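Q: Could you predict the 3D structure of Penicillinase repressor?
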Amino acid sequence: MPPKQYHVTDTELLVLQVLWERSRATTREVCDEIYPEGSTSQYYTVQKLLERLESRNCVERDRSQRVHIFSATIDRETLIQERLRGLSDSLCGGSVIPMLTGLIQMRRWTTAEQKQLNQLLEEVSGKKSKRN
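A: Sure. Here are the predicted structure tokens for Penicillinase repressor:
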């Protein structure tokens, strides 16, 4: 069974980022984060974005109180993996090597980042050898 796909627009991503940072938030709180000087129309825009995310199971709504509280049901890592999978499919025919090469070569890495990357590669290598 293929992994579940979440199609999230850039504007919806702003909403999710607020929920990831806060854990839970009302429509007003999300609106205030995204649009500090928010208008009524921007409030309704955020409300609609939350409804769309809820319909795609990216957020859930607590209706137990008068003011509904939203929380993300998709985590940042899952969304990153999905977006990268889609990018590798569209740009690299599904191969991740050209994409990884581009990411690695696009900037200088700190010593700490290089160490993290090496640890990740060792973990992946260890998982593969355990499966074989």
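Q: Anything worth pointing out?
A: Residues 76-131 form one domain.
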